[in-house]
Amino acid sequence: MLDIRIIRENPETVRERVKARGGDAWKLIDELLECDEVRRKGETEKQQLQNERKTESKKIGALKKAGEDTAAVEAAMRKIGDQIKAIGDKVDAVDARQRELLLSIPNMPHPNCPVGSDETANPEVRTWGEKPHLEAPRDHVDLGTSLGILDFESAVKISGSGFIVFRGAGAKLERALINFLLDLHTTEHGYTEVGVPFVVNRDCMTGTGQLPKFEDDMYGTENNELFLAPTAEVPVTNLMRDEIVAADDLPVHMVAYTPCFRREAGSAGRESKGLIRMHQFDKVELVKIVHPDNSYDALEKLTADAEKVLQLLGLHYRVIELCTGDVGNSAAKTYDIEVWAPGHGAYLEVSSCSNFEDYQARRMGLRFKDKETKKNVFCHTLNGSGTALPRLYVALLETYQQPDGSINIPEALQPYFGADSIPAKS
RNA sequence: GGAGAGGUGGCCGAGUGGUUGAAGGCGCACGCUUGGAAAGCGUGUGUAGGGGAAACUCUACCGAGGGUUCGAAUCCCUCCCUCUCCGCCA
What is the ipTM of this complex? Predict the structure, then answer.
């Protein structure tokens, strides 16, 4: 959520920066400013009437004690009460609309965010490693089903398309990866592990920005207003919702493993083959709550923490920066990390690292007490996958496949997996 | 799921229709006092929004949302949460 004061004071700047995203959201700003003016005028008017009622009503008690007739005053107050009610209703309606508009307007991309209309305009920031030289590499679906570790057919029977059943060494590999990632970030990068509910309420989903705009993409339970978390970002960041933290308690660095649930409606084909796009997938998520002065340094470090995963696993990747037309609704700046999948001959996004500045913090009322001014100031929030599991899994199988169909396990993972390879089926 | 008891500031806690401008205490901050410290004394101590150049000021907020009333922390309704007991249960 953007700061209404900033919008009020610099409408042109805000409009331009929101407009850089493409889409129509910038058009809402005029209506927003109109609401703001009507609301403030109404509030002042209402307050004056409330003041009058409060002062006069107080006298009634004293008058009654003195045995005087208060019918006239009461009638006058009743009239003021009606006026207050009428103005209040109007103000409430406008206020609700203003909030709705504010929740719908996306964040402003950072001024240095590369301008572009879609993902083709995302500049590459850096690459690491090289594409492995493989003769006729097989893809993970072929490899995984041949080895009997990935069972797509059973998943369809249980839940439908977009789900996976891991078997034997395949299940253990998934579990090994989760433990490897959590240990790496807690012991090497200074994050504190949290275990959180996978089901969250509407306030959480609004706080991090999934709602109101993306309700159709989420699995929800209609009756009790709970949602399956689409990412650990939601429950983890919302741990801090409605908190005023001491400045000394910043930064907060948290890491969590959770499954993630997404409807991902309408996608099919090569982009979603096998494990690449799932309705349920595992992810280890990094979340940072920081002082506004440090948030861009924190983003660089967070991205490096995620990259470390791929470096330790020896997987070639590239980092790209999302342009104004591709950066997510709540984010001001985002790096995507894309791992090379030889079997697909494509880079796959395994991590998206974003600085939301105070956009999420304002939605969820997450502040810290500034030492000098003693004021409550909105924190900056960041998160990034560290990393998503399925595409990491894909890259591992496809990168470390051997001519006989077996899979070598990178050294860093061996202590967790308990073996140096997944042997081919005889 | 059932029954009962509760939910008031950073914390404890008073308060069942009108100086509540939320008592009192604790904590915290600053000051006085002191050789230094403790004790003691004094002052201050929330959030959001509106108005104002500012000093400042107004309004709202006693779990949440509605209602009754000239006036609600206080009365009524709905919901949420916590505790105790019962039921169910990995």
Answer: 0.84
Please tell me the pTM assigned to this model: 0.92
Euclidean distance between CA atoms A333 and A321, whole angstroms: 8
Å: A54 CA to B59 C1': 11
Judge if the beta carbon of A267 is closer than 7 A to nucleic acid strand B.
Answer: no
**CATH 3.30.930.10 boundaries in chain A:** 119-422
The fold of A4-104 is Helix Hairpins (1.10.287)
Q: How many residues does chain A have?
A: 426
Report which of A337, A293, A285, A295 is spatially closest to residue A316, judged by C-alpha positions: A337
φ, ψ (nearest 5 deg) of residue A126? -165, 165
C1' (B17) to CA (A57) span, angstroms: 12
Taking only the tens place, the pLDDT of each residue in A234-245 is 999 999 988 888
- Nucleotide closest to A376 measured between CA and C1': B47
DSSP class of A63:
H
Distance A419 CA to B86 C1' (A): 52
pLDDT digits (tens, 9 = 90+) for A52-70: 888 888 888 888 877 788 8
Give the pLDDT score at A28. Answer: 93
Q: Any atom of strand B under 7 A from CB of A77?
A: yes
Indicate the CATH number for domain A119-422.
Answer: 3.30.930.10
Please give the nucleotide, over all strands, whose C1' is closest to the CA of residue A377: B47
Q: Where does CATH 1.10.287.40 sit in chain A?
A: 4-104
Closest residue (Cα, C1') to B48: A365
Distance A371 CA to B33 C1' (A): 29
| Whether A391 contacts A275, CB under 8 Å | yes
A19 pLDDT tier (thresholds 50, 70, 90) = very high
State the greatest distance between any 2 C-alpha atoms of chain A, in Å, as a whole number. 103
